[in-house]
Amino acid sequence: MTIFDYDNLPTITISYILRDADNPTIGVWVTNQETKEKAFFDAVTAPTVFINDGYFTVDVTSLLTGINANTSLLVSAVDSNSDPIYRDIVVFEQRLDVEADYEQNDETGEYIFA
Question: pTM higher than 0.70 for the full model?
Fold first, then answer.
């Protein structure tokens, strides 16, 4: 899970470990988990994804109307066969400041993000 600063939108930065250098990322699907709105961001022909060593950035301007500080985003980097080669969930750090976002697991005494 990536915890990102909401104030840095419309660009999000994801730590990225590519395990197979012969299978490059051609783009990224970003899904708003609350609204289920989904958009493809191209890394090749009209780049809105920029892949660097160890991370990539995505400009999510086309999804901005449905994103707020409480949104969760599913980010899936895909190869040329549209198979996901990396997935991550993005939440915003402003959401984590609220105690109601946590619940106690009575078996372990630990807190988990809900």
Answer: yes
Q: Cα–Cα distance between 24 and 51 in angstroms, integer? A: 10
> Cβ distance 55 to 11 under 8 Å?
no
Contact (Cβ atoms closer than 8 angstroms) between residue 75 and residue 63: no
Residue type, 4: F
| Polymer length of the chain | 114
32 in Cβ contact with 66 (< 8 Å): yes
- Into which CATH architecture does domain 2-113 fall? Sandwich (2.60)
Domain boundaries in the chain? Answer: 2-113
pLDDT at 106 over 80: no
Token match 């600063």: residue? 5
